[in-house]
Amino acid sequence: MDVPELLRRAARHVPAVAPGAAGTTVADANEYLDHDEWEVALGILVELGDAYRSETAFWDLLAEAARMMWQSRTERWCHWRRFEVVHGVIRADLQLVDPDVAGGRRTPIPGDGRLRPLWDIGDVTAAGDPDLYVARLWVEAQPDLQPGGRAVVRLAPLSPQRWRRLVPGDVITMHEQMPVVGIASIVESVLPVGDDREA
After folding, report:
1. H or E segment and range at residue 189
2. What local confidence, expressed as pLDDT, does residue 198 receive?
3. Rounded CA separation 187/198 (Å)
4. Quick check: 182 and 95 in contact, CB under 8 A?
5. Res 193: pLDDT
6. Domain boundaries, the chain
7. Considering the entire predicted model, what is its pTM?
């Protein structure tokens, strides 16, 4: 299957009236496809997928199209969004500690989901120590997060079921070694469709 066909198939998943953040619709994406403007069409479809409740098949088609177009960051974003369709969305306001403080990062955090830090979400081991969990991190609206910086991030836990009790306002900490690297406040926690928050 070639890129235009992948994008056209993805476009069929989008409701005709669903507007993107910029007011674009699936008709705009199809018009760009008619003029062989694949990158613009891909961008519009990704935006539309973020604006309505999309399905895993939609993100699979876009990820494959992005891969074939050598759009690696877009491909990673499509895989990320697919994960969120299955496991839910967790967003947090993350403040990194100052780089001069013990444990503070001295290099930027890549913003495209490659970093897999440990997180203290409030659970403890049988010995009473913090039970830390791995979650990938995506920085919203910027390519990376500078040392000591602050940004809204999305988290993709390796064990999503453990995170389902988190609600907006909960505070969690990020670790790469023992000292705290960052402090985050949950701003959004949305379960996948058909799932109920654990009691």
Report:
1. strand 180-190
2. 44
3. 19
4. yes
5. 65
6. 3-87, 89-190
7. 0.89
> Distance between CA atoms of 104 and 84, rounded to whole angstroms?
29
Q: What is the CA radius of gyration of the chain?
A: 19
- Consecutive 10-residue runs of the chain (199 residues): their mean pLDDT? 93 86 88 94 93 91 97 96 95 95 88 95 93 96 95 96 94 90 96 57
Look at the block and give the residue holding tokens 């409701």: 15
CA angle, 176 as apex, 108 and 113 as ends, to 5°?
55
CATH match for 89-190 among 1.10.510.10, 2.40.50.140, 2.40.110.10, 2.40.30.10? 2.40.30.10
Buried residues in 136-171 as b, exposed as e (16+ CB within 10 A): bbbbeeeeebebbbebbbbbbbeebebbbebeeebe
